[in-house]
Amino acid sequence: MPILFVVAGCASGLQFRDEGGSNADPAPPTELITERLISNERQEHLDLSNQNLEKLLVPNPPPYKIGGGDVLAIVVWDHPELAGNMAIPSSTDPAGAASAAPQGFVVDHLGRIQFPLAGLLTVEGLTEEQARALLTTRLAKYLARPNVTLRVQAYRSKRVYIDGEVKSPGLQAINDIPMTLVEALNRAGGLLPTADQSRIALERGQERYRINLRELVQKGVNPGLVMLAPGDVVRVHSRDESKVFVSGEVITPKALTMHDGRLTLNEALGESGGISPLSGDARQVYVVRKTPERTRVFQLDARVAGSLAMAESFELQPKDIVYVAATPLANWNRQLSLLIPGALTSAVTATNRP
What we know:
- This protein has helices at 35-49, 128-139, 181-187, 213-218, 265-271, 307-313, 328-339, 343-351, and strands at 3-6, 15-18, 30-32, 71-76, 105-106, 112-115, 119-122, 148-154, 159-164, 170-173, 195-204, 207-211, 233-238, 243-248, 254-257, 280-290, 295-300, 321-326.
- It is α+β, with helices and mostly antiparallel strands and 354 residues long.
- The protein folds into three domains: 3-32 and 242-339, Outer membrane lipoprotein wza fold like; 56-60 and 158-240, Roll (Outer membrane lipoprotein wza fold like); 71-154, 2-Layer Sandwich (wza like fold), CATH 3.30.1950.10.
- The model is unreliable at 1-10 and 86-101 (pLDDT under 50).
- Keywords: Cell outer membrane, Ion transport, Lipoprotein, Membrane, Palmitate, Polysaccharide transport, Porin, Signal, Sugar transport, Transmembrane, Transmembrane beta strand, Transport.
């Protein structure tokens, strides 16, 4: 059941109201922000950021392997009659004009090419060097010491998709240059100013990884070692998706954008002008956080010694709500003004008369 938080009557503080009646889940408990809680939160964040990225890091990437759809250029020296003259229709030319299309040998859906004298050769999954050696062995039955040159002329079998806050989102073909995360982002034109470098999502099959570029650099991990695989989907999230909402008794309630995934409670209060000196209760600074499991409510008593240091160490998360409660006197004044409009002003005016 949804839970709403309200300030009721003259009561001071954050209170919850169940919308589903008596059968609704109880209001979440309030957790005091202490050094121990901050340490636990930091460890949870560290565990989340230390998710298994080992399988993504490839220090020495293997050479490109030929796949179905690739176009191979093959030359048998001193035997021009064996040159491939088949025109491959261009994927960008609707008419399929042969004059504008590359010439070569296309790897079919079974991973094979057909070459004069050698017949059908299965080259899928082989490197250029391995495919050249295979073709040389076949041609050696008919030619004396054949000298073969084989290379991939058009890379069309493997792709990754880049989406989100990049200059040119879309498909990127994997070629002989290793397709690292940094390489893919650069091919997409680089990150936009609105990109959140702390929230880059990588989807590979049923698995999903969250990559924080800044944290990788801080840990001494080269982001250039993050190797993409065919079919990977990379999405760069926007900073606008990582906002924190500050409301209640602050000078300027507003929605704040996180700085590459980082914003502390102290920074959020500071960017909102601070706690209102007239109506804000420094003892009751709340952070409401919705998690997949439950709703959590944190409370900071800003009057306690060391509270500013704890506020600076308390890391907020996207969609957090920072709420500063009103003082009991401010609540009483507002309730009285609702019941007897202008009564307090009249009383003050009468008291000040000579």
